[in-house]
Give the backbone structure.
Amino acid sequence: MKYFKFLITGVFFGIVMTKSEAISWYRIQEMFRFDSFHMYGIIGSALITGILFIQIIKFFNLKDISGKKIEVKEKSFSISRYLFGGILFGFGWALSGACPGPMFTLIGNGYSVILIVIISAVFGTYVYGATKKWLPH
Amino acid sequence: MIELLIQPWPWYISGPLIAIIMILLLYFGGSFGVSSNLRSICSIAGAGKKTPFFNYNWKDEIWNLIFILGAVIGGFISSIFFKNPNPININIKTINDLKALGISFDGNIIPHEIFNWEFLFSLQGFLILILGGFFVGFGSRWAGGCTSGHAINGLSNLQIPSLIAVIGFFIGGLIVTYFIYPLIF
């Protein structure tokens, strides 16, 4: 029961990802070619709403369901880690046309071959973990 | 009502709904970041025995795995009950650019000529499906997050690292779109 709320939120996420067409390889191509405002609109409006919500949470010191103060984890500062990691992620995003959320949603949409993309992403994550100490952070 | 669910949702509905999902996860004691699950999967598979990076208590992250299980179900529900009967509305300029590369527009949410098991065993299939996936996994963990963790969650909290990561996402995406696609197609 503890996890049921996460399941429902995930179902809602999968529906939003599908209906917004954010799972579309074509939409990602269109975004990187600057031919449509659609994806920028999704990310931009999510961001504006998100900033507003987070500011409200901080201003009123709102608490989560278990009574703990809601805090967004701060990431430690670095340039190389986020820039190089980000660029590699961008390679993958443009090639596969999907970031991790849409990948899982596409499986539900019946595209079984995306399983291979997810397995490759898990492998990529593993290789990062194994080679991490040699990478700039 | 069902009409509204069947047609594609505009960005100004979808974006705020994504922000609500992020807030719900925070309220439930989690946080929005899908790529962390890839690390959990490595850990569950036993990668922690050899590699300390995967030696952590993945059980604390079960909620996130349940969340993406939900996303799979959500995708299934949408494809069965709210399927858009019309071809996806992609700008003709993108369609023509892709056609010039030899990728035809079939109106589906993703091109069926690429996302199928036969194509996987071609060089292009390897590059798109396997190398593409590999980079998503490697890059997201190196950068400490993906689109959900950085572009939505991190930027909503006005974090500079997330801004750098998102700039990186676009540098990488533009390089592949303009320089690599013409080479591989």
